[in-house]
C-alpha cells in the first residue's frame, strides 16, 4: 500500500473555485483501487472546519506564520483529511484566495506558506510519528512544501510530485518574505525559488519535485514551449525527462445523466429523446423561447480572455439570426460580464446569461444544451467538456491542451470511421470559432442521424479516473522511498 499525502488548497465538495477541487475530491477514491491510500491536507476555511466537525487534534503550533495553529485529523465527504486550523490565516468568509474587494488577500504568501510548512511536517514524519511515501503538491499554493523538504531534509524524505493544474498561476511574492517564510538566504537563487527578483511558490515545486505532472498530455508539451510556458518553459524543458501529462478524469457517479437529481429528466445513451425535457427546462430557466428546433449552445465557466469568451460577443448577433440560442453561466471580467448582459437584453428569448455559479444549474446546462462551447486560448485539461461528452451535449472546443486530447473533431475521416465526438477550431481565432459553430449548426439542422452518432460516441467515451489512477499509482511507486 502506498501512503499518499495530497496537498490541495480546495477539495470538492468542501470548497471549490475550479477544476482543482474536482480533481482533489475525486482522485482519492480512484487511487484506492490501485493500492494507494490518500489523506488530503486542506486549509481550515470555515466551511471545511464545519464539515470536519470534532476531529482529532494531532499537532499544535505556537506560532505558525503569525499565530497559533493546529493540525486536525478528520473525515468528511468520504475523504480522509488533515485540516490546518489557523484562524489568523483562514477564518475568513468567501473565496479562499480573494478578499471582499476581489483582490488577493495581502497575506496569501504567509497563508499558503504555513499550509506548505504543515505539508512538509506531515510528509517528513515530524507530526505524531506519521509517515507518507509520496506528497502530491497541487498548484502553487502547495508548492513551497518542496522547498521546505529540500532545505531542511528529514531522515526519510518522501517522494514529491508537483501537479500543475494551471501554469498561469504561479504564486509570486516579494523577496523580503523569504525570512518570514522561514527559508534560508541560499534559497533565493536561480537554482532555488528566486524568480525575476521575487519568490515563486510554483517554481519551488518545479525545481525540487521528483516528478512533475500536468493534467493532460498536450498541455505537458505546450508548457515546455515559449508560447505556453508562462516564463517557466526553460525550467520545464530542462526537466523534460520528469515531466508527464496524465489526463484528468471526472467523478462519473456525480456526473451521471441516468441518476442526476439536477435534471428535469434522467436519460442514457439508449434514450436520448429524454434530453428534450431538459432542453425545455433549460430554456425556461434562462428565459429562452421554447423552440425545440433551436440550436441551444451552453457554456459554464469563467468569463475571461484565457477562456476565449471575448471572441463570442461579436459573433452572437449573426448566430442568433441563424437560429442559435445561448445559455451561459459564469463570472469573471467585469467588461465581459457587462457585454454578455447587454447581449441578453438585446436578444431577449435567444440569449440567457446568469452571472455567478450554481452547481445544479451547471448540471442542467450539460443535460439540456445541444452543444457545449469552450473557446479557450489555453486549457490545461478542462472538465466541463468531459461532462458534456457524458451528458450527450456535443462539445465545440479550441484545439488546445486537454480539449485537444478529449474531443475528436467531426472531420470527414472521423465521421466516416464513426469516431467523431465534437468540433475543434483554432484557438484564439474568431473566424475559426465561427466556422466550427456554423458546421455544428448545419449538422444539427440537416443530419440528425450524424448528430445522434456524435452524442452516442461522446457518451461512450471513457472519462472516468481509471486510466489516470493507474498512471499515478505507477509513478508514485517509482519515486517512493524503498526499504
Automatic annotation (TrEMBL):
<dbReference type="GO" id="GO:0004373">
    <property type="term" value="F:alpha-1,4-glucan glucosyltransferase (UDP-glucose donor) activity"/>
</dbReference>
<keyword id="KW-0808">Transferase</keyword>
<dbReference type="InterPro" id="IPR011835">
    <property type="entry name" value="GS/SS"/>
</dbReference>
<dbReference type="InterPro" id="IPR001296">
    <property type="entry name" value="Glyco_trans_1"/>
</dbReference>
<feature type="domain" description="Starch synthase catalytic">
    <location>
        <begin position="4"/>
        <end position="237"/>
    </location>
</feature>
<dbReference type="InterPro" id="IPR013534">
    <property type="entry name" value="Starch_synth_cat_dom"/>
</dbReference>
<dbReference type="GO" id="GO:0009011">
    <property type="term" value="F:alpha-1,4-glucan glucosyltransferase (ADP-glucose donor) activity"/>
</dbReference>
<keyword id="KW-0320">Glycogen biosynthesis</keyword>
<feature type="binding site">
    <location>
        <position position="16"/>
    </location>
    <ligand>
        <name>ADP-alpha-D-glucose</name>
    </ligand>
</feature>
<dbReference type="GO" id="GO:0005978">
    <property type="term" value="P:glycogen biosynthetic process"/>
</dbReference>
<comment type="pathway">
    <text>Glycan biosynthesis; glycogen biosynthesis.</text>
</comment>
<keyword id="KW-0328">Glycosyltransferase</keyword>
<dbReference type="Pfam" id="PF08323">
    <property type="entry name" value="Glyco_transf_5"/>
</dbReference>
<dbReference type="GO" id="GO:0005829">
    <property type="term" value="C:cytosol"/>
</dbReference>
<comment type="similarity">
    <text>Belongs to the glycosyltransferase 1 family. Bacterial/plant glycogen synthase subfamily.</text>
</comment>
<feature type="domain" description="Glycosyl transferase family 1">
    <location>
        <begin position="295"/>
        <end position="442"/>
    </location>
</feature>
<comment type="function">
    <text>Synthesizes alpha-1,4-glucan chains using ADP-glucose.</text>
</comment>
<protein>
    <recommendedName>
        <fullName>Glycogen synthase</fullName>
        <ecNumber>2.4.1.21</ecNumber>
    </recommendedName>
</protein>
<dbReference type="Pfam" id="PF00534">
    <property type="entry name" value="Glycos_transf_1"/>
</dbReference>
Amino acid at each position: 500500500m502506498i501512503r499518499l499525502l495530497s496537498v490541495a488548497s480546495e477539495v470538492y465538495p468542501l470548497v471549490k473555485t475550479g477544476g482543482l477541487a474536482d480533481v482533489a475530491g475525486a482522485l482519492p477514491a480512484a487511487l484506492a483501487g490501485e493500492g494507494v491510500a490518500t489523506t488530503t491536507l486542506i486549509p481550515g476555511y470555515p466551511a471545511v472546519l464545519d464539515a470536519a466537525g470534532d476531529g482529532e487534534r494531532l499537532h499544535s503550533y505556537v506560532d505558525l506564520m503569525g499565530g497559533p495553529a493546529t493540525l486536525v485529523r478528520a473525515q468528511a465527504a468520504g475523504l480522509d483529511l488533515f485540516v490546518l486550523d489557523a484562524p489568523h490565516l483562514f477564518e475568513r468568509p468567501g473565496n479562499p484566495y480573494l478578499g471582499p474587494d476581489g483582490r488577493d488577500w495581502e497575506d496569501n504568501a504567509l497563508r499558503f506558506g504555513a499550509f506548505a510548512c504543515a505539508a512538509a511536517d506531515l510528509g517528513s514524519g515530524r507530526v505524531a510519528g506519521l509517515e507518507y511515501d509520496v506528497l502530491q503538491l497541487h498548484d502553487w499554493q502547495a508548492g513551497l512544501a518542496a522547498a521546505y523538504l529540500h532545505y531542511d531534509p528529514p531522515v526519510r524524505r518522501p517522494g514529491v510530485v508537483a501537479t500543475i493544474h494551471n501554469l498561469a498561476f504561479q504564486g509570486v511574492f516579494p523577496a523580503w518574505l523569504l525570512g518570514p517564510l522561514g527559508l534560508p538566504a541560499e534559497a533565493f537563487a536561480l537554482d532555488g525559488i528566486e524568480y525575476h527578483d521575487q519568490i515563486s511558490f510554483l517554481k519551488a515545486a518545479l525545481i525540487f519535485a521528483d516528478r512533475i505532472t500536468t493534467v493532460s498530455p498536450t498541455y505537458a508539451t505546450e508548457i515546455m514551449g515559449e508560447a505556453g510556458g508562462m516564463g517557466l518553459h526553460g525550467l520545464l524543458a530542462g526537466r523534460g525527462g520528469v515531466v508527464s501529462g496524465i489526463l484528468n478524469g471526472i467523478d462519473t457517479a456525480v456526473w451521471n445523466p441516468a441518476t442526476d437529481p439536477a435534471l428535469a429528466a434522467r436519460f442514457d445513451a439508449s434514450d436520448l429523446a429524454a434530453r428534450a425535457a431538459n432542453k425545455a427546462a433549460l430554456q425556461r430557466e434562462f428565459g429562452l423561447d421554447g423552440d425545440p428546433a433551436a440550436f441551444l449552445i451552453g457554456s459554464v465557466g469563467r468569463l475571461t480572455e484565457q477562456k476565449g469568451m471575448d471572441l463570442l460577443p461579436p459573433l452572437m448577433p449573426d448566430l442568433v439570426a441563424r437560429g442559435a440560442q445561448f445559455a451561459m453561466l459564469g463570472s469573471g471580467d467585469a467588461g465581459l460580464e457587462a457585454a454578455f448582459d447587454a447581449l441578453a437584453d438585446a436578444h431577449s428569448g435567444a440569449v440567457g446569461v446568469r452571472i455567478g455559479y450554481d452547481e445544479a444549474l451547471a448540471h442542467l446546462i450539460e443535460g439540456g444544451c445541444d452543444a457545449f462551447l469552450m473557446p479557450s486560448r489555453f486549457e490545461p485539461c478542462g472538465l466541463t467538456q468531459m461532462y458534456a461528452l457524458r451528458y450527450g451535449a456535443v462539445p465545440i472546443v479550441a484545439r488546445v491542451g486537454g480539449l485537444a486530447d478529449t474531443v475528436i473533431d467531426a472531420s470527414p475521416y472521423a465521421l466516416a470511421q464513426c469516431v467523431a465526438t465534437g468540433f475543434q477550431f483554432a484557438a484564439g481565432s474568431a473566424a475559426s470559432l465561427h466556422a466550427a459553430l456554423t458546421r455544428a449548426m448545419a449538422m444539427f439542422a440537416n443530419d440528425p442521424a450524424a448528430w445522434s452518432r456524435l452524442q452516442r460516441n461522446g457518451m461512450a467515451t471513457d472519462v472516468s479516473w481509471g486510466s489516470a489512477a493507474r498512471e499515478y499509482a505507477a509513478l508514485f511507486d517509482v519515486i517512493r522511498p524503498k526499504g
